[in-house]
Amino acid sequence: MTKKLVLNNKEIENLTFAEKEYEVIDSEYSFLYLRVSKRTKTFRFIKKDKYGNLHRIAIGSYPAVKRLNAIKTCFEYIEKINNGISPMGEIRTKKNEFTLSEALEFYLQKRSRKLCDKVYKDYQNDIPRIFSKFMNRKLSLITDDEVENIFEDLTENNGPSAANHAIEKLKAAAKMQVPLIFS
Questions:
Q1: Other C-beta atoms within 10 Å of 36: how many?
Q2: Are the beta carbons of 55 and 47 closer than 8 angstroms?
Q3: Within a 10 A sphere around the Cβ of 161, how many other Cβ atoms?
Q4: Do 97 and 178 touch, CB atoms closer than 8 A?
């Protein structure tokens, strides 16, 4: 289901979360829309370049990202596209600049439709609890030795199964942002 609205704060607040996601196009800016799922309301950008290539980019979740910031980001993307630069290409090169906290937020935002409530909450709670010292560090600065030390501690204190599950959760969140990390 797709509908058009002026996406002001009141209208966005009135949009209800739904099991089946739907999209609401901003009637003032056709390149901006909001995807509403069962847990998130995410601003997205969509536009074709002069060659007909479609650019779709998630901007961020409301209310963390406000409409005016989303519009500003869209205009930055349009300028890049008009200059022959792929905004996603730039985003991919900056992935190592994300912190684990940002990577986890992005992962949960992207996967929220596919994760059951229990698994979603496990990720939301377990990663910050187990990897608390990494949460505000850039992914590129987390070393294999540090991850190995946490794995060994978890294995000793909680058993190998818990340690493996924790590392798998960390890898899932980090790979969504940085495909080469921990591979």
A1: 21
A2: yes
A3: 10
A4: no
Cα 48 to Cα 7, 53, 79, 81: the distances in Å are 21, 5, 12, 9
Estimate to the nearest angstrom the gap between the alpha carbon of 58 and the chain centroid.
8
* Distance separating alpha carbons of residues 32 and 23, to the nearest angstrom: 10
The predicted model scores a pTM of: 0.55
- DSSP state at residue 16: P
DSSP H or E run through 46 = strand 41-48
- Classify strands 22-26 and 2-5 as parallel, antiparallel or unpaired: parallel
- pLDDT at residue number 115: 81
**Nearest C-alpha neighbor of 139 from the set 124, 127, 125:** 127
55/27 Cα distance (integer angstroms)? 19
Decide if 104 contacts 173 (C-beta within 8 A): yes
Helix (H, G, I), strand (E, B) or coil at 23: strand
Q: What is the pLDDT of residue 180?
A: 33
Residue-wise pLDDT tens digits, 9-52: 889 999 999 888 899 999 999 999 999 988 889 999 999 888 88
Strand 32-36 relative to strand 54-61, pairing: unpaired
